[in-house]
Predict the 3D structure of the following.
Amino acid sequence: MKVLVSVKRVVDYNVRIQVKSDGSGVVTDGVKFSMNPFDEIAMEEAVRLREKGKVTEIVAVTIGGAKNEETLRSALAFGADRAIHIKEEGEVQPLTAAKAFAAVLKKEGAQLFLCGKQAIDDDANQTGQMVASLLDIAQATFASKVEVDGAKAQITREIDAGLETLEVDLPAVVSVDLRLNEPRYLKLPDIMKAKKKPIETIGLGDVGVTAEAGTKTVKVSPPPARAKGVMVKTVDELVAALKSKGLV
Amino acid sequence: MSKILVIAEHSDGKLNAGVAKAVAAAQKIGGEIAVAVLAADGAAVAAQAAKLDGVAKVVVVNNAANAYPIAAVLAPQIAELAAGYTHVLFPGTTFGKDLAPRVAAKLNVQQVSDIMAVHAPNQFDRPIYAGNAITTVEAAAGTVVATVRQASFNAVGEGGSAAVETVSVSAALPSHTRFVKIEAQKSARPDLQAASRVVSGGRALGSSENFKVIYDFADKIGAGVGASRAAVDSGYVPNDMQVGQTGKIIAPELYFAIGISGAIQHLAGIKDARTIVAINKDPEAPIFEVADIGLVGDLFTVVPELQGKL
């Protein structure tokens, strides 16, 4: 069975985000980028499924500008066999990405599409569901457990009400949540090996998709600052402060 | 004028509290508001939705396939119901987040996730980078499909009496996704996301046994209980208690961060809390930068003392 894993290059999760003074976006110059942490979990799961003998080939896919190749190299170091780079220098919105990934999924005949539940830059949480919708196949978002059994899979999902289990027919889209696994540290030999693995570069046109105008960003602003707080020295002062605010 | 369809989340015949917040967002957009209830038998849920202020109509689709909400089954029905509406809104819960993009793709439109403010019928604020930046976006022409951030809107009242109309849809429904089971997290404490008071513990608790300090204090003041990712990762508490960017984003009236240093990822989950109280023995902890009231001290002596004095 072949699995397709989508990965996204994002500002590293340890970076303290700064909004540009002209409101056009966030500062990305000189900022560290890495693979979206949820996508690392998706990659790790693909590798574990192969270790269990459920998966024979892992293909990583991304969409975006030239620098995204670094992210594909990380995916290859994780253990992807090969990678596909859909090169698009302009802004890519979720529906466009989903159309491109759906076309690749179909062309590759992959039985499983794994992705992070959301990317930590735009926090959209849409692409996986859209891929499934476009292909009319099953989806299981927020996965905390994935069990593949032949042409079916059982997925446990972390939802507000607790843990839900769905059974899906393959092919299916699974978006992964934090609890699913802990991604391995990439070792130097794997990083070296990844340099020799193939990356196929294609354009949106090659998968029959046109980048379409979608949501327009009017401006980006910093979140409203909280008013400066007070420090109290004793529990009695704390109780008094809470009482003066009418909170207890 | 906008025509807005709000999709009702429900379970066991009860309307989810997030729907009244989505209706509040719909009121800000302005126009005629309808609520869609898809269920095996939606009568009870429809009656609750009909009471929500501002709702003009409740549309009910009864189908045995809707007994348990599965996005792949609901999406084609909602896409069909969406005809004639300018907006389709979902509560920004795991239900809405799972379902809305599936509907948006069916309608061939981009989706706006997590709207937190409405500037115009097609212009919204939404958080990016876990709320560390806010972006104002304008939706493209076509149906606006959006999820409504739960922490940003107050539920509408229940003084209405909208008409209830049962309709049928013709969309073909897939059978590739089947519900197996749900293991509900049972707790006598208030739900983390709905509670007006929340007490969270962090790594400084040191063990799951020590978390009793947090539970006892929370029970004394009738609060929900949360935890930092560090406490979850250390195995002190289950993941569904996690508050933060990768867990639950909450907006209680009163929030106690106890033994929590205040990593960016945790702060992202509590930004909208009305009052934040931090108790930590490290005076340099970043949590004090956002706290409204801070107290430097050993939580194991401070918290029981506080509990006794409230």
